[in-house]
Amino acid sequence: MHVLSHSDPEVAAIIADEEQRQVETLEMIASENYASAGVLEVTGSVFTNKYAEGYPGKRYYAGNQHSDRLETLAIERAKQLFGAEHANVQPTSGAEANMAAYLAFAQPGDTIMGLELSQGGHLTHGSPVNFSGRLYNFVAYSVDRESEVVDMEDVRRLAREHKPRIIVCGATAYPRTVDFPAFAEIAQETGALLMADMSHIAGLVAGGEHISPVPYADIVTTTTHKTLRGPRGALALCKEQHAEALDKAVFPGTQGGPHLHSIGAKAVAFGEALAPEFKHYARQVVENAAALADELMKGGLRLVSGGTDNHLLLADCNSKGISGLKAQNALQGAGIITNRNTIPYDERPPYVGSGLRIGTAALTSRQMATDEMRRVARWILRVLDDPDGDGVREGVRSEVAEFAKAYPVPGITDR
Ligand SMILES: *Cc1c(COP(=O)(O)O)cnc(C)c1O
What we know:
This protein is α/β, with parallel strands linked by helices. It has helices at residues 4-7, 9-24, 37-43, 65-82, 94-105, 131-135, 152-162, 180-190, 202-206, 243-254, 260-274, 276-298, 324-333, 361-365, 370-385, 390-404, and strands spanning 26-27, 54-55, 58-59, 86-88, 111-115, 137-141, 166-169, 193-197, 219-223, 234-238, 302-303, 312-316, 336-337, 339-341, 355-359.
């Protein structure tokens, strides 16, 4: 920030404060992570200046010889990383990628199936206030009331009944493995296309810790900034037969000029994910979530579905007699950053929620392992057992800040 601190000290000061916050708190929002110094450097590069509407070799602007190299590299790495036939690296966000996928394969008014939003689905999987719910006829499938795992029989029954054009699988607050082969079988039986939104788990898929949707789904969308640890942005993968439809739906269908600075940063992130160390990271993320879950349950916190298979867990705060909102705010006061969420069949409104979503990706990127997770779990329990206790919160907050400072933060302490 040495340039900015002279040219615009006001903004530079805000960024410095945010860096400090990211160092001194425990980032446990399941959709967040720490991008590497390399990823940040490319995000701040001169490619932000360049217009490149179109695709490599077919641009609507001059001067794109280096843009083409950059985007082609990102595409090739994405295909290699996920074993995909075709990759589009232009979607600027997960929501945009999903919009393009629907535009490519459905008409307004068509039926699409997705996981019930209050049970872990995403806004773009049919929320009535989102474009998806307004333009398409979404039908929601559910998790089983007892097991709190996606009820594949419900999926099959609804798919037979509604004959959807697309079945969407993947979620934003779901702690269990997504059964892509089972979804593919149902899609095949009912003549639907299968779309897998692996936004949350892409890093686990890349690292071999979650079954890949690529062999099973017609189209796969994902953000690049969650467990995958790249820049803010997204990626869409598909079989060769759908490549043209997908590319057209991204540009000119839903977007203008590609964000080349972000595409370059995606190339860097894919390169990092192809390196052997990334497998260790992905494994550690999952082991950390399991250790965190175990320690929290020992402390009397109920977890939706009784645990986790991936990088996140969803705690039922009713087991501590408080709402998700209250839990989130109490933990924030203690320097532990999470987000509230609804739980399946929640009786509280979404703004309050009974759940707390907690992820381990960002802390794993800080080199924390299972011992650290157990320690963090005990801090969480201390706060949730006495959410109104100012002394407890203050005490945990200073212990957390002291503890956190000892761990490196990619993109911050190494720059
Ligand atoms: C995060 C997420 C998205 C949206 O990504 P944005 O980049 O925030 O638009 C879409 N789908 C799922 C499942 C997600 O978890």
